[in-house]
Amino acid sequence: MAGTRVADRLAPSWLVVQVLGTVVLTATVVTAVPAPTWLLLVYLASLACWVLWLLSASRLPRTSLGLLVLASLLPALVVGASPDGTAMIMLAVVLGRMAMLPSVTVTVIGATTALDALAATASCVLLDRPLSLVLGAVALCVFVTLLGLHPRHHQMQAAHSRQLLEQTRLAQREQARAAALDERTRIARELHDVLAHSLGALGVQLEVAEVLLIDKGDVDGAVERVRRSRRLAAEGLAEARRAVAALRADVVPLAEAVTSLAESHHSDHGVDVEVTSEGEPRPLPSAATVCLLGTVREALTNAAKHAPGAPVTITLRYNAADVQVEVRNAPPERVPNTGEEAEGYGLTGMRERVALVGGSLTTAPTEDGGWSVIVEVPG
C-alpha cells in the first residue's frame, strides 16, 4: 500500500481487513446466481484487479491504485444487469476499502465515488431498472465512502502522532547533544583558566630562579622565586579544586567563599579587608559564583600589586535581578613595585569570564585616589 510502512502493513488489523475483503469478494462471486458468462467475467475481472492490487500495493503504488479504481468501477458498470446483489456487494467492499486508505487522497476517493455512482446510475437507466435501485446504488456509494473515511481519519491522526513523536525525539537528542557540547566547552574553559594561569606563572618563576642560581649566583633571590613558585602551585591547586567543584555544581555559598578570600588576603599581605553584604543572600548558579570569585580574587591581587598596604572593602549586593560585587581599595600607602609578577586572570580574562555568564565588569578610580572593581551577574 502506497505510503504505508511495512510494520503497518503487517499489523493484524491490516491483514484482517485485506483477508476479510478478499474472502467476501470471492464468496460473493462464487455464490452469485446463474448469470450470463460476460457478467461472470466482469465479476472475475474485478476480483482479479483486487488481488493484483494486494500484490502490487507496496511496490507499484500508482499502478495498484489504478487497479483498485478499476476493481470498483467494473461492478458499478453492471449494477443494472446484475440479477442479484453481487455487483452492489463487490462495489461496496472495494469502494469502502479505498476510502479507508491513508495513502489515497480525499480528492481521488471523492472522484472514484462519483465515478462509481455515475456508472451505476447509467447502468440502471440504460437497462430501465427501477428508480429505487438507482437511488440505492448512489446511496450505497456515498455511505461506504463516508464509512471508510472515519477509520482513515484515525489512521492519519495516528501516523501524524508518530511523526510528531519521532520529531520530538530527534529534537531531544539534538538538545542533549548541544547540552553535552556546552558542558564540554565549559569544562575546557575551566581547565584552561586554571592550568594556563597557574602553570604559566609557575614556569616563569622557576625559569627566573634558574637564571638567578646559574648566571648570577643569587641564592636568596632564587629562594624567593622558589617560594613564590610554591605559593603559585598552592593557589593553582586551590583554583583547580574550585573549578572541579563548579563542574560538580557544589560550589560553596558566595558570601562564605568571599570571606575566605578576604581572610587569605589579610593573612598574606597584612592589610585590613572588610566584607559587607546588602540584600537577602540567595543561591546562585555555580558558573556565576565561580565568575564572581575569580573576579574578586583578581581584584585583590591587583590591589596588593598596585596599592600595597591599602585597606580593601568588598561589598556584596543582592539586587532583585542580579548580584553585584564591588572590590574597592584605598589609595596606596607606598609606591608599588611594578616589577612584581602579576597574578590572577588579568583584566581581559576577567571581562571574558564575566561576559560568558551574561554579566558586566566596571573598573574605575575612586574619588579619594583608590580603585574600584564592580562586577554584576544575573541571578
From TrEMBL:
Start and end residues of each Histidine kinase/HSP90-like ATPase domain: 295-378
EC number: 2.7.13.3
Keywords: ATP-binding, Kinase, Membrane, Nucleotide-binding, Phosphoprotein, Transferase, Transmembrane, Transmembrane helix, Two-component regulatory system
Residue stretches spanning the membrane: 12-32, 38-55, 67-93, 99-119, 131-149
InterPro entries in alphabetical order: HATPase_C_sf, HATPase_dom, Sensor_HK_TwoCompSys, Sig_transdc_His_kin_sub3_dim/P
Domain of life (superkingdom): Bacteria
Keyword Membrane: yes
One GO MF term: kinase activity
Keyword Hydrolase: no
Every Signal transduction histidine kinase subgroup 3 dimerisation and phosphoacceptor domain range: 183-250
Reactions this protein catalyses: ATP + protein L-histidine = ADP + protein N-phospho-L-histidine
Gene3D superfamilies cross-referenced by the UniProt entry: 1.20.5.1930, Histidine kinase-like ATPase, C-terminal domain
Protein name per its UniProtKB record: histidine kinase
Species for this entry: Allokutzneria multivorans
